[in-house]
Write a structure and sequence with these properties.
The complex is a heterodimer. By secondary structure, chain A is mostly helical. Chain A has 8 helices and no strands. In chain A, helix 1 packs antiparallel against helix 2, helix 1 crosses helix 3 and helix 6 packs across helix 8. The longest helix of chain A has 24 residues. Chain A starts with 6 loop residues before the first helix and ends in an 11-residue tail after the last helix. The C terminus of chain A is likely disordered. By secondary structure, chain B is mainly beta. Chain B is built from 7 helices and 32 strands. In chain B, the strands form 7 sheets. Chain B has a 7-stranded antiparallel beta sheet, with no helix packed on it. Chain B has a 5-stranded mixed beta sheet with strand order 1-27-26-25-24. A 4-stranded antiparallel beta sheet of chain B has the order 8-9-10-11, with no helix packed on it. About 10% of the residues of chain B have low confidence. The chains are: A mainly alpha, B mainly beta. At the A-B interface, helix 1, helix 2, helix 3, helix 4 and helix 5 of A face helix 1, helix 2 and helix 6 of B.
Chain lengths: 172, 497
Amino acid sequence: MTHELSPREAIQALYQQYSNDVYRYARLTLGNHTDAVDTVQEVFFRAFRTYDKFRHSANEKTWLMSIARNYMMDLFRKRKTERAYVEKSQSPQLSYESQGTETRMELERALMKLKPMYRSVFVLRVLQDMTTEETAAALGWSSVKVRTTLYRANLQLRELLGVEPMIQAGDV
Amino acid sequence: MMDDKKRFQAAVEDINLSGEESARIWDELDERMKSYETNHQRKPRSRSQQYWMTGFAAAAAVCIAIGGTWSALHLSKAGPKPVGVSATNKVTSEHLAVFDSKTLDSLHGAPLYTILGSSDDTSQWSTHLIDEHANWARFSGDGKWIAITTDSTSTGSTSPNPTLWIISSDGKQKQKVPGLSFHFGSWMANSNAFVYGEPHAHHLYVVKPNTSKVLFDLATPKNAEVSDIKFSPDGRYAAVLFSVDAPNPQDAHPDFAHWHDEIVIRDLSTKSQKVLVSASSQNGLVLGPWASDSQSVFYWDDPQHSASILADGTMLHQVDLSGGNHAISVALVAAQTADIANTVVPMGSGDAAIQLGGGRELFTNKSIGLWKSGTLVDLPKQPNEVQLSPSASSDGSKIAFVSAPELKSYPTSTEYEAWRQSMKLYVYSSVSDEVRAIDKAGTGVRLPMMTTDGSRILYLKGTDLWAIDAGGITAPKKIATLPAGNVSIADYLSIVK
């Protein structure tokens, strides 16, 4: 019921609930921790500024992911010409405690080889387990585009990782 | 056996912010939100309103008394008086480097063209495709060469690995500079020598067309990396940005505690170096351009080396060779965008035209300031108007820019594009302190570029490059049409022949 709170209180509630989802999406899309952290702050700040316009019938997570997507597209555009791209690009910074580290490193390396649009759709639809409709809303795409792009992303990832498809027929 | 989808979902499940990091982000965010609320509940007077209330009060009173208006006084239409036409009739040589890509989100560079011509004959311009995957470009001081970087990730590798090339401006001679990866670089003034550094550079290289690279003479402290270099226009000095005690990204727990930046001036003739500016611990600096008289350099604060803070603009300073430091105003950091070519444009002796206003949203709170003799004044401006992308004649007598009404709320992408299409071209004359609308350029004008003698303005409109006389007297002439559709300026050089 965040819409009954003040905008700042509502953003705090959203931050507690979704900051890790936004971070994971940014980290797996941008490929580095520093940019992902900046993205988290920027997404919630943009959400705060436009909170009055947020249609509360919409899914909050989808709304935040669409803000994240727009912000990261801005970053991609800027990086085309800015030397900051060179400065800030780095190997993914990983923590080495978890058992899934090797898998994660392998996955992150493979994701960085995909086009940004393939990466986004794969992260949201498969890794974040959002529905096709939620993913479409977050990316501003049609459901058909989500399915076809995910299919192509999956083909490339399968080739890169040498594994069976990570999506089943029913997923797309 | 768990299928691959579940295995990968499980593997990324613990990609989370640490509690400490999450709290830090929230604290910063909360501060930003409080600040935003404060600024929007009790709106301060806009810069133009302050201007109206102070320095221009007398002029406004006179204007009102005689039945005129503020805009009549300061925003005259192009009439018979040609304020922009150069009295000296010098001929200039123009060099543009433009990116032209089909999509906006390409990470792997874009087609780069050079467009070369002369201000006195708009029929003799030539366009040259320099590279299909360029992502950075700078002309040498004489305009004969261009240093570019291309992205070697376009064939599928992952990490960016920009490759440096030295190419003749017409694209006929091309030299690949061997090395690991380009990070930053700058042409030396009055020379065809290009000095550049690689990531985490402890030393720099210098390369000239058709020669091999050699080490550039520089004393780098043991605990420092070189992050940028800019040469003074007179060729005597180099401003060098050092990152001191920078964290090693290879460490499991990089140490950020002592990381800070310094600007050092190196006298190229005596080889002496001195620290001009030193940021406090954990803070950075961004090196801007030299002033035209080579006696000072502009720079921005880079609090906490944060790209997010930097993106909203930070304090711009001018520091002279003796260390005298002026904090000018909050300004966006120099970075080419689709709508601003440069945010600090040196002119006159130590003066500059400056893109003012914090916040990354270009549709609000943006104006152009004239930094002259250590004082900042706004260009005349209507209330609720946004001014973007200053470009000036070398003597500072004329400043071209584009302008549109401010948007009061966050636009949709359609509204934003419509707003961009409403941009019009204006020229400010410091002689008459008057802004003149260049109506013949029409609307949808982007990235105006004033020739060094102030006689003409080049500008983008859609996919076309146009030229018009700075007085707006004659009809604009189309110079070039770019094929793909998303055009932005990589570099612009105007020199007197």
